[in-house]
Amino acid sequence: MKKVLMGNHAATLGATLARAQVVAAYPITPATQVVELIAEMSAKGEYTGQFLRVESEHSAMAALLGAATAGARCFTATSSQGLAYMHEMLHWVSGARLPIVMVDVNRALASPWNLWTDQTDSLSQRDTGWLQFYCATNQEVLDTVLQAYKVAERVSLPAMVILDGFTLSHVYEPVEVPTQAQADEYLPPWTPERRLDPAHPAGFGALEGPKEYLRLRHRLAQDMERAEDEVDRAGSQFGRLFGRDYSCVETYRCTDADTLLLTSGAVGSTAKQAVDELRDEGFKAGVVRVRLFRPFPAKSLRRILRRSQRVAVVDRNFSQGQQGIFCEELKAALYGLEERPEIYGYVAGLGGGDITVELLKEIWREAADGQGEKLEPAWMEDPR
Amino acid sequence: MKTSIPETELMTSGHQACQGCGATLAMRYALKGLGEKTVMVLPACCWTVLAGPTPRSALSVPVLHAPFAGAAATASGVKAGLLARGDADTQVVAWAGDGGTYDIGIQALSGAADRDEDILYVCYDNEAYMNTGIQRSGGTPAGAWTMTTPGKGGSPRPKKDIDAIMEAHHPAYQATATPAYAEDLVRKFAKARAIKGFRFIHILAPCPPGWKYDSERTVALSRLSVQTGLFALYEIEAGRFRLNMNVAARKPVGEFLRGQGRFKGLTPEAEAAIQAQTDARWAALDARSRAA
Questions:
Q1: Of the residues A310, B6, B79, B95, which has the fewest C-beta atoms closer than 10 A?
Q2: What residues does A68 pair with on adjacent strands?
Q3: Which residues from chain A sit within 8 angstroms of residue B65, using beta carbons?
Q4: What CA–CA distance (Å, rounded) separates A54 from B93?
Q5: Does the domain at residues A249-380 carry the CATH identifier 3.40.50.920?
Q6: Is the ipTM of this complex over 0.90?
């Protein structure tokens, strides 16, 4: 059924269609409506799982550590400071190999206070062992929550589904909502091998020595690496059932393009508009939208990007002392190749500044002219 | 012959505790009251180590290790997860030290109590961060030496009144216990197990290396803590207060304090002040018990 939904509610419906059995959450702008809708559905009896109104984000993820170890499918949502406050727990649950799914609504980190979108909150968590998906539309948010469970449970790792604060979270778009029967067909119940069960007492998370610890981390790394193919597989399976295909990386008008905009999140949609206009003006422009950030889809990107191309990476995030994070990751992924494209880094839209079609076209033209700076990121301000 | 304490052992030998560890006695008796349908959630504390490294475990019930600040929240989640799987019967216990309760874990503890989570939260209180090597916590009494209160006079502040803090959350059941009174401790755990809602048990657990006494004196000190009135045994059920051990002739607090190296620097004036505070607190508890 087609509904007009805000991004936050699309996320909620993804979780309830996935039959998340335990939800623990704490309010934070701009993610609050994700859990408000679950509370409302719970009060009406439309959601029959356990809903815990915890007193902090740290406790939200601690509660899900307990619930998932007991064998329940778990969900939460947060943003920005809340995600940062949860940091310790993010490492904990990935080490515990629990396929928890969390929605993060991108919002800039304080200080100073800022409510609007940028990706530094989620990208600060890149080394926590969570899969990270960046969505471009509200439809993709709902669909990705379902796919995130599928992949997370296959590789026994937690997954973060990320959407832009306000730009997607509070914007209403038409969304095709699957029926429960369709969702059930795609996503069967989770049946963990081990769980907390007094009939089979076991210790979870007890002290390990260096040798076993390293082996466990290596095994986690291998499963994380495997996730790149699993995301494509889960995306194709989704396409066969629902008619909407997904992969790690989305390409748009790339086949004969000489210069590409590479970006993520809702900017990926704006970039398509910019490329359409550039094409109308006779330029060979294309868009690469990186949907999966962890694991970093190096295999897909190595296949897509060619030596003859120039790539302008648009980062709505920044790693202080380095550069835009997607740019840095892309350079690392392509480093070993003998033939690789020129890469230019652009930082824009931090703290919610608009990344407009005009700005993206300006970036594209600079890169296409070979005028971009190869070593330092260019900081782009919205001229308006 | 019927014993006054169940013979079932859910804690095995081979645990990693120091000789004379009060927290180990507490766990052994607690499990006798709780029974095998129990899940134990352990935040960072001595018991993180005592339970044994992977793949060994000294407990015959499932154990989930949790981060320092998260015992009560993790236990809340375990309960929700078990309910989601159709298991309403298993008892979920958060078993935390004083640091994990009085200090870093108090937010999650307050939240879980406020939500009336159907869990039992146990604080085994050895009155300092003992697992990290004796640093002051909110549970450290005034005058006690620790590695972070090494100066003359020891800890400058009185022990935080965690029981009053928890009572202000209106828990379904609340009690104090200490291993010297084993029947009382086991009875309280068995009773707590049968009550639904949030329950809190505070155990005073003597610690030979942290309190600096010879390990054979653990039970004696546990007993003296009650007989001097420093640690009162009581329970509060649905708001009704009951003193379990009305010590008619309380011993001087010095009998508990002396012989513990951590109080070596205590002046006679400081000891007299502790005696006066203990007398005042006891009078209040006694009056409250009579009123109830």
A1: B6
A2: none
A3: 203-206
A4: 18
A5: yes
A6: yes
